[in-house]
Specification:
The complex is a heterodimer of chains A (about 350) and B (about 325). Chain A is α+β, with helices and mostly antiparallel strands and about 350 residues long. In chain A, about 50% of the residues lie in helices and about 10% in strands. Chain A is built from twelve helices and six strands. In chain A, a hairpin with a 4-residue loop joins strand 3 and strand 4. The N and C termini of chain A lie far apart (about 75 Å). Chain B has a domain of about 170 residues. In chain B, about 60% of the residues lie in helices and about 0% in strands. In chain B, helix 5 crosses helix 6 and helix 9 packs across helix 12. The longest helix of chain B is centred in the middle third of the chain and has 28 residues. The radius of gyration of chain B is 22 Å and the shape is globular. The relative contact order of chain B is 0.12. The mean pLDDT of chain B is about 90. The chains are: A alpha+beta (about 350), B mainly alpha (about 325). At the A-B interface, helix 7, helix 8, helix 9, strand 1 and strand 2 of A face helix 1, helix 3, helix 6, helix 7 and helix 9 of B.
């Protein structure tokens, strides 16, 4: 590694390079002879099993990941902004992670022992290690942080299955590939490569059943002032309610408001709607496979031919227990131009 | 047991011989389901969508505190979904997309009836075309459509070397001894299920605290869905009369929801102890049906679980019963 020119002074660039070099050696071990940091050189573990190296990398990456996220969090130029409890949790993880990382740095035998226990797959050790996965959800509110730190904890297992993949070349590659695929998809937070993704996410609902219930979506209004809900299947093949409209709204600056497009789609699908079929039932009728969000209550469209539609509104209706509308909030209004 | 020994046991189980008849039955399930699903969508619609609409970056779908999809980088998405073809050919018209939809349905039926075809061409073409077409959904804000299991199974059928037979020659497979090739295909299909449900289980551990396992208001969710449905809302639950039976029994939240999470985490058992497949199939049928009570349709998964049952065993048992009845 080039040494800084002491005659010239120690510039911020040199400092950054030194810092990066230290981080690299600290996390990954070093094979570069360096007179200043003998200990780091002696701590090289390139010849150790990959899983052990990954365990150490995982341990030592935790404080750096926490520090980077803290920096991103306080920076106003990034989209990463976590809550105050997450902010403090990151700080604690940084401190605790730094201690653990230093222990693994100064006392490599300890991590070696932990690794060997894991490698021998003593059930208590493996279960104990996997129980660590329960800690990040307790520390953080943001799912991204929970998955990121759990992903880091899974790195040694990813390394273990990768080693097995490389070692068992005589076995069918598909059999060896599945555990690797599983671990990669688990380690990378928010993995998606269509048509594959990380499985059903964990989420909760907290529903307080009150005296009112709200309904949200698009409504069509005809020239007689009658209104009906617009079925979400009008955007089939996208049949999950709200998704297409949400995606459109994210592109509205480039492609214009959604109202005219809804009319275009409505004109296209009206013949089937009038006949009592939803767009996903175009070919198979009532025998069609269900839409992703289960479609119900297709209203009679005979009074709603495209030429009689005067308005499309994005609304939220609030009903009382008697089924009466007590409130109608309009979030978007598109007046259909008359011919 | 060491990790090496555990891995060796896994590889040994992967090679457990199985019957080709069953893998062929699975092929029929997959082919028919793809044909059914594709004919129940209107891919021609995508021909009227402005090209600038694509490619929706899926991380934008959910709030940052919720579900995350960080590898949904547009250029990467275009590469894996075969949408890179638009760089060369331009965007397809409404009629081209409709023809492709019919072509996929035909390939699904061909695969179901005739088999994977010479050089597995029907299966491979179906996989490429299905990925291409469904990706119009994935790239426009809907990252799921009860399709991951089907895609995984179709990919396994493309890659594995079991003995393929058209439906009119299935009789030849009934008495055929079990083979390792068919066993590997069946194991890989089981692993597709394990990948999907096992990762879902991992997500429950990573995304939720243990106390949050007990805070999903499933029954209240069903009740709100039914109330909205009564008010004429455009989505709801199938068979609302059935789901109405559970309204008011909120205590079920504390049993049903954690049971599902535990089943996800224990799905690995199915690979090593295959006699439990039927139990998992029954459990997941009930689970996915219950999810429909909150308006989320998982019909394909309900059906596909039953493809895993050993159909040859059932058939042979029936034949044996008939023979013994005839003999007496």
């Amino acid at each position: 590694m080039p040494q800084p020119d002491l005659q010239r002074g120690f510039s911020p660039g040199d400092f950054a390079r030194e810092l990066l070099s230290f981080i690299r050696r600290f996390i990954g071990g070093s094979t570069v002879p360096d007179a200043v940091s003998d200990r780091i050189v002696s701590d090289r573990f390139v010849s150790m099993p990959l899983a052990l190296r990954m365990l150490r990398i995982a341990l030592r990456a935790i404080p750096f990941a926490a520090a980077c996220l803290l920096l991103l969090d306080v920076s106003r130029y990034t989209p990463f902004h976590f809550s105050r409890p997450d902010h403090y949790a990151l700080l604690w993880v940084f401190l605790a992670g730094a201690v653990v990382a230093l222990v693994s740095f100064w006392a490599p035998r300890l991590t070696l022992g932990a690794f060997l226990a894991l490698w021998d797959l003593r059930i208590a050790c493996l279960v104990g290690y996997l129980l660590l996965l329960l800690v990040p959800p307790l520390l953080f509110e943001a799912v991204f942080l929970r998955r990121l730190f759990d992903g880091i904890l899974l790195l040694p297992l990813l390394a273990a299955v990768w080693m097995q993949y490389r070692r068992n070349v005589a076995a069918p590659w598909l059999a060896r590939a599945f555990p690797v695929a599983f671990m990669v998809m688990a380690v990378v937070p928010g993995f998606i490569l269509p048509p594959y993704y990380q499985g059903i996410a964990g989420w909760t609902t907290s529903i307080t059943l009150g005296d009112t219930v709200t309904l949200f979506g698009y409504q069509l209004e005809n020239d007689a002032g009658e209104r009906i809900w617009l079925t979400h299947t009008i955007f089939a093949p996208v049949t999950q309610a709200g998704r297409f409209a949400f995606a459109w709204e994210s592109r509205e600056a480039e492609i214009g408001p959604i109202g005219p497009f809804i009319m275009k789609a409505y004109r296209r699908t009206y013949p089937w709607l009038k006949a009592g079929y939803m767009p996903h039932q175009r070919y198979l009728g009532q025998l069609a496979y269900a839409s992703s969000t289960y479609a119900t209550n297709l209203p009679d469209h005979s009074n709603f031919p495209p030429e009689r539609i005067v308005r499309i509104q994005k609304v939220e209706l609030t009903y009382d227990r008697a089924g009466k509308v007590v409130r109608r909030d309009v979030y978007g209004d598109y007046e259909v131009p008359r011919p | 047991m060491t990790l090496n020994e555990a891995y060796a046991a896994y590889l040994k189980k992967y090679d457990t011989p199985h019957n080709d008849f069953h893998v062929n039955v699975i092929r029929i399930f997959v082919g028919v389901l793809f044909a059914w699903k594709v004919m129940s969508r209107d891919f021609g619609f995508m021909g009227i969508v402005p090209h600038e609409f694509f490619y929706f970056y899926p991380i934008e779908i959910y709030p940052p505190k919720g579900i995350i999809l960080i590898t949904g980088i547009p250029i990467l998405m275009e590469l894996v979904t075969f949408h890179w073809i638009h760089w060369i050919t331009g965007f397809p018209s409404e009629s081209v997309l409709t023809w492709l939809q019919f072509a996929l349905a035909a390939l699904g039926i061909l695969m179901a009836v005739i088999g994977r075809g010479p050089y597995r061409i029907f299966a491979i073409a179906a996989y490429v075309l299905a990925t291409y077409l469904w990706s119009f959904e994935f790239l426009s804000g809907q990252e799921i459509d009860s399709a991951m299991l089907l895609f995984g199974m179709l990919l396994v059928l493309c890659l594995c070397g079991y003995e393929d037979r058209p439906v009119w020659r299935f009789g030849q497979l009934i008495r055929k001894p079990e083979t390792v090739a068919a066993g590997r295909a069946f194991s890989a299909i089981l692993l597709v299920f394990i990948l999907y449900y096992g990762l879902s289980g991992y997500n429950k551990v990573a995304d939720l605290t243990i106390t949050e396992w007990f805070s999903y208001n499933l029954i209240q969710d069903i009740e709100v869905t039914l109330r909205r449905q009564e008010l004429g809302y455009y989505f709801g639950a199938p068979v609302p009369q059935f789901f109405a039976l559970f309204v008011g029994h909120e205590w079920l939240n504390y049993i049903l929801v954690p049971m599902v999470y535990i089943s996800h985490l224990s799905i690995f058992i199915m690979f090593f102890r295959r006699r439990h497949i039927l139990k998992f199939a029954a459990f997941y049928t009930v689970f996915h049906f219950f999810a429909e009570g909150t308006s989320i349709s998982f019909t394909a998964y309900i059906v596909i679980w039953w493809a895993l049952i050993d159909w040859r065993g059932l058939f042979l048992r029936k034949v044996a019963t008939e023979v013994s009845v005839a003999a007496t």
